[in-house]
Amino acid sequence: MLPRINVHGVALACVVLSGCARTTIDNDPTLHPPVAKGAAPAVAGETVVRDLSRYDFLTAYPKRFIEQKVAFGASCDMSARSADKGVEADAKLLRKLFNDAKSPEDFASSLQGEFELVQVAVNAGVPSGVLSGKDGMLTGYATPEVLVRSKPDERFRFPIVGDIRKSHPELIDKPRRELIASPAVRESAIAWVDDPLAWALIETNGSARLTFEDSGVEKGKSRRSIVISRVATNGKPWTSIGRWLANRGLVDSSTYTFADVAREAGAHPDKTEAAALDNERVVFFAVVSEAAFPPPIGVSGGGLMAGYSCAADQSIYPAGSVLVVVERDGQAGVLRPARFLFVHDAGGAIAGPGRVDAYFGEGTDALLKAGQARTPVEIFRLRRR
Q: How far is the C-alpha of 73 from the C-alpha of 69, rounded, in Å?
């Protein structure tokens, strides 16, 4: 179990070890993995698996709770709105099989006759660390709830930067320290945070529910709350607090966990602030509607679905793609459980066919679970035969 950090009384688990993906309304290119001009696609080929009985699809059927069935159906419907016709057809067929199935066994059997699994490899010349579908890694992200203030003061010194692309285009490519020192940027801040680790958490996960500590002070009134989602970045490199600490020998670079990061952050708040400021990438946010929060990338029709939506590289898995992930390690002779995930999101840190970031939902419990998620998996795209 990861430790909790309290941001003004709100317990949070932080996924700050590496840059997670998050959502957008204006789908700015800086939220997607970088692609060099003229570069070849980061795929060398694909392996097709037609015998789906090699995996346990009974576990993928959302049979336990009505909430799971509703979320699964809504995820299929959202993917069916993809601009990719193949993805649209895949999602509609999966929805039909789900609706028609009389039991988990019936559902698993129907998949065998209609779908195949496609696993993507990578080119030999892609950047170091880009994983193939066979050597994939599943991580998680979630939406934090944080207390903030509307104006800065001695405590609340870290701005959540608004969307300045149109109002101040001359500033959008500045590094963090220079950008947040600008009076124009400070005036455009949506809110102010007093904890650099929480500040990093909001930017890492890319969406948040903000409750204003300096509102609702009158008797009988509740505090004002808004939801935000990221819309762009300044395009600079991302450096996590965990990596910053590891580079300075404060945590073990090969074994550190969030527990180590949180412990060092508590023991050395000055170093945590320096780490947050040395991260040159700044995320720009906008206030969004509750009705479709957190908003997806590439598809429409609702917000991300906890347990089913995920972020993946949409240059490889088109928006809405249905993915099947299975753990790499399993007992000999035992079918490995399969899990459905739907590509409803993207992010600059989620690159290549072997990286998938699952959305865990909103609040403390979701953040705790997301902070623990780091599973070696094989990743497949579900495709009609």
A: 6
Dig out the tokens for 329 from the structure: 């390690």
Residue 178's nearest CA partner among 277, 286, 276, 271 is 277
CA-CA distance, 233 to 227, in Å (whole number)? 18
Residue 376: phi and psi, rounded to 5, are: -65, 125
Length, in residues, of the chain: 385
Q: How sure is the predictor about 9, in pLDDT bands with cuts at 50, 70 and 90?
A: very low
Q: Which of 324, 331, 330, 325 is nearest to 377 (CA)?
A: 325
Q: Hey, what amino acid is at 166?
A: K
39 pLDDT above the threshold of 60: no
pTM over 0.70: yes
1-240+279-385 CATH pick, 2.60.40.1220, 2.40.40.10, 2.40.30.60, 3.90.550.10: 2.40.40.10
pLDDT 10s digits, 318-371: 999 999 999 988 676 788 999 999 999 987 778 889 999 999 998 878 887 887
Q: Where are the domains of the chain?
A: 1-240+279-385
Which amino acid does the sequence have at 282?
Answer: V
For the chain, count helices (H), then strands (E): 10, 17
Report percent pLDDT > 70 for the chain. 83
The end-to-end CA distance of the chain, in Å, is 42
140 neighbors 361 (Cβ within 8 angstroms): no
